Amino acid sequence: MNPVRVGFVGAGSHANGVHYPSLHELELAQLEAICDLEEERLQRTADTYGIPQRFRDYRQMLEQADVEAVYVCLPPMGLRDIAVDCFRARKHVFMEKPPGVNSRDCLAMLEAARQNHCHSMVAFNRRFAPVLAAAKRLVDEKGPPVQAMAEFHKNMVGQKSYYGLSILVCDIIHVVDCLRFFLGEAAEVHSDVRQHNNDWDNVFNALIRFDSGAVGLLSACRVAAGRYERFELHGEGISAYIRAPEEAEVWTSDRDCQRLQGAQLCGRDDTRATYGFLDESRHFLECVQQDREPLTNLADALESIRLCEWIQYGKPLA
Question: Hey, is 209 helix, strand or coil?
């Protein structure tokens, strides 16, 4: 198949750290156009990756550049309108998480994608981290999991929440999405949300019962000593303890343990590969080529953002 012709909206540090180099490496992609408001950043990124068409207005890019898909790498506040315009231009869209400020934004983008028969994908890279995907596969082979745990801590003492928005929706959603990836859809949520010496919610604990009967546990603290992310996934006679992207231990008895290493599974010690950034782009491009919906499409992402809102506010906003 021919490479997917891709345009970019946004040339910030995260996009330059993972998305541009990933697409530059993948033969599935052909980087055709780029748009950014900051001229120096625009030209520097375009020169680095040999992107021929350069724009300051994304609407001009949609009108003039012959692209099939657009990467929208922006903060959540400006994401909805740009993504909707891309869908209306009949472009498939890969977007950074979170999928909008709230579930209402996500739903609006989903409706636009459906109306214009476009594919969508939200960058929940943990699902594509090789150690997490391999550990989940081993547990699933034994039967349906019965319990999962996700913890995600950072030290944000004295800081503001990202963009002034819910830290649960903006960041912790990564591991909430993994709980859904492990166990399915939520049926019941019991949560405790606190503002510890702060004016924004920064400590989250939740017990979640899923439609499957499995139970999920969330623990996320933003006044911790430092960054720490870990998962557990338990089935009958099997348990996985996961530290993505580095390693996982999968136990099938007190003595039998299979140890997984991210670098070994990828064949390289590169965060873009071990943390799933490279594989998520590969998955999106293959889906565009094959005309099928990506795993973390907007309909699926809507359930993750709704679950975050359920945990924080007691109900989804949309």
Answer: strand
